[in-house]
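Dear Dr. L.,

I hope this message finds you well. Following up on our conversation about the binding site, I have prepared a predicted three-dimensional model of the protein together with glutamic acid. For your records, I am including the exact sequence and ligand specification that went into the calculation, followed by the structure tokens. Please feel free to forward this to your student if that is useful.
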Amino acid sequence: MSETRTRFAPSPTGYMHLGSVRTALFAWLIAKREDGKFILRIEDTDQSRLVQGSVEHIIKTLKALGINYDEGPKVGGDYGPYFQSQRLDIYKKFAEKLIELGRAYADPYSAAEVDKFRLDSKNNKKPFLFRNYRPDKYQKWEIGQPLRFLSDPKAYTWEDQVMGSLSAGEEAVDDFIIMKSDGYPTYNFAHIVDDYLMKITHVIRSQEFIASTPKFLNLYEAFDFPRPELATLPPVLSADGKKKLSKRDGAKDILEYLDEGFLPEAIINLLASLGFNDGTTQELFTIKELTEKFDLKRVQKSGAIFDEKRLQWMNSHYIRQLSENQLAEKFEKFWPKEAKGYSSEYKLKVLETFKDRLKFGKELTNLSLFFFKELPVDLNLIKEHKQLSKLETADLKKLLSQSIDKLSKTEFNSNDIQKSLNELLISTGQKPVVLFSLIRIGITETPSSPGLAETMEVLGKEISLERIDHLFQALA
Ligand code: GLU
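The resulting structure of the complex is given below.
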């Protein structure tokens, strides 16, 4: 059997969204599972859509996620070049071959003439098919002139590895442009030639290409190329499941997630979950497990919902797997600027208090601020608190002064602090939601924070008591 060779063939248009990176991941997993090769090919034939810097962006994204390609830009390979813009001679040769085979012709029409054909079809209530308007005589083709495929219309039924049996009538096959007037090939033509020359065995891509597949099948036949396995991935939907996910739904570029402190392992798992499961309830997989278990037959046909909360949940899981030191290294850039000058021991302790509750790195910037600077007293935190708002100021003050009293006699380690806090519950007759929330507001000036005793231990006795006292003073 021939070697499995899959490819990721992005157009460098500037954005690496979840859907495209998922395509890359699935193609990579198939190659890895079969001990084959994964190829990166840059499809840059549409010169008007090119965005500066996107190739670096694509490479950086794949690298950050550990989706390493065996052949492609920078690493090279036996089937290069891996930029379509550097393969123009190849496309020209294959275009000429099609002409020789009697399966391509120079398009002699102006845009106005084509518009007229279109109108004509519309008036006759027929779908517009270019092949109904072929010229009587074909002119010699020169590069710089549009070249059209001369199709052989027929109905097709084909097997899609994910979608199952698909079919289309002969109206789906038409004479499409293969070479444009700017000398570049179209995607429809170039990818077929490249997949053939690069010996691609599996073409994995998104939904939008299903409609054109009959054209591709017709072209494979014209060239007598073997047909690779085709697999169409389900669309990625917004959290409400109602529409295709877009930037408007808050979906970000993958590098942006990485920049916000989402770990590659979490992103990989999230991407894998967008359409794949192994038939059990397992939700988190190592790369090794994914490689072993991944199978196109287990990819769902229906849309896969993206929910950022799920990504956060996965990320929290991988954050908890890290040691404090690893975490400190990875999240160093997320400390607020106020943390400058604090020792790494202190920061490590702060991190320890957050480890179990952090969903992504960037959260650290705001959440940890109170560890480095005293925030202004905010009495609204009390007014907006369901239980605290019911208490009179005098009662609140009494609770705070009892707390100061008790805590000032406490050894400042989290166990003893916790013991004192529990004793305070008994002596004041208050519930934790009242007493602990009040002390927490004094100490952190935020409605929620890591465990109160741990937080106080890290801040130390002096600062903790000072802050409770500041709240006491502020309550008029
Ligand atoms: N260049 C196409 C795109 O970015 C790739 C489609 C394919 O994988 O064949 O959408």
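In brief: The chain has four domains: 1-75+234-321, 87-233, 323-370, 374-474.

With kind regards,
A. P.
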